[in-house]
Amino acid sequence: MTPLKYHIKCNKINKKELQGGIFLEKLDIKNELQYIEKVADFNQNKNLKYYILTMGCQLNENDSEKLSGMLEKMGYTQTQEMKEANFVLFNTCCVRENAEEKLFGKVGEVKKQKEEKGTIIAIGGCMMQEPHIIEKLRKSYPYVDIIFGTHTLHKLPKDVYHILQNRKRIEDIIDIDGEIIEGLPIKREDNIKASVTIMNGCNNFCTYCIVPYVRGRERSRHPKDIIEEIESLAKHGYKEITLLGQNVNSYLRVEGWKEKNINWEGVNSFATLLEKICRVSGIEKITFVSPHPKDFTDDVIDVIAKEEKISKLIHLPLQSGSTEVLRKMNRKYTKEQYLQLVEKMKNKIPNVKFSTDIIVGFPEETEEDFEDTLDVVKKVNYEQVFMFIYSRRVGTVADKMENQIPEEIKHKRFNRLKELVETQIADNNKLYIGTKQKVIVEGYSKNNEKMLTGRTDSNKVVIFEGNQEKIGKMVTIEIISEHMWYLKGKIVD
Hints:
Blueprint: H1 29-43, E1 48-54, H2 58-73, E2 76-78, E3 87-92, H3 98-109, H4 111-117, E4 120-125, H5 131-140, E5 146-148, H6 156-166, E6 170-172, E7 193-197, E8 199-200, H7 211-215, E9 219-220, H8 223-235, E10 240-244, H9 270-278, E11 285-289, H10 298-306, E12 313-315, H11 323-329, H12 335-348, E13 353-360, H13 367-380, E14 384-389, H14 407-430, E15 436-444, E16 452-455, E17 461-464, E18 474-482, E19 487-491
Parallel strand pairs: 1-2, 1-3, 3-4, 4-5, 5-6, 7-10, 10-11, 12-13, 13-14, 17-19
Antiparallel strand pairs: 8-9, 15-16, 15-18, 16-17, 18-19
């Protein structure tokens, strides 16, 4: 199947060339969205269903909410069963190698479905920015209809329209940094908690990470657009907001707002954005992911300390406790600097707690290096640790490093870290017994339909008895017992 000719490959285009109209700018979004109406007219009265499989991080999940919003406007209704769908979409992640195996397995599953009922198959997201993936799809999966990248998500309605017209595969991928696109429809998966992207891309180039190559350089959303989105969410009853970005605490920094004395209603940095969001009536809890330790400035720490709405659980990715490994990872901080930052936060922020990300088995990691990681874990005493065994990614610097760690050693180290973390979590959970915790009631527990559930400020899951009227409200819970992965309590207000 020959790809449609409007596919643009822009390997050599630079930022200056974008001014000539090659790339879609913000004001052109209405032209793209007109295709929603065209597809909706085509699909009218056909009772068509769509299925989305989302792989990866919260940013991918937020992208999927936008994709769902566009598909709903185009006349499709969501189904949780892939076999029922007339439109199947895979929103991919490329952080881990096994994601590729999962994707190709799923694409193979849907081939028969396409042959029997003409199901449209679309694949988007980070993985589609990798040339070797595109080549494999061309060679081995010619029945895929639409392939789009991270910078062309907003063009899905146009892509669908052309597929419905002529059924020629569309590859809609560009290799340049995308613009921030506003005004896309969105279908939220939750009616109490919502994610809000404040920036896209990353400038850090950690040696193990493919994200800067597939998401592009850092681009911040305008503060006005962020605040208006959050105000709209508050009006619709949302209580908790999570701010998203690959390097969320460098917001507006690459644009140099602070240095240029540019501000919008007092917003010219991540710290001032947080302050502004805290003033939005109806929003009761604010979290953010993922910050970078090197960009955690004093003004942000001060805002977290003084603003009650901002969660006191800080996600502070470590990746490794070894200064030498951190250097090889290009993380731009040392073990000592990380611990100093933690200590500063503990001194300034009452009841602060930490979560983190750790990679085990990075190339050339010695036993001494790994012991340094265990040492940091012991000293910080994290509430949550997201642990990963190092996975090679084609196109990264680390993939070409010598002395890759054998899988057996990786797994042994991982298990040692896991044992330490689980011991810490068990000990920390006991400290919650008898305490009172402010919790936004999220709904009924998935594992016990008779119990309500919510999360503490430290992101601990709590289950408790209560009626439906409590859902969406902030309540005070007294913790009465603890388990490894949740706490049990009772409402006391």
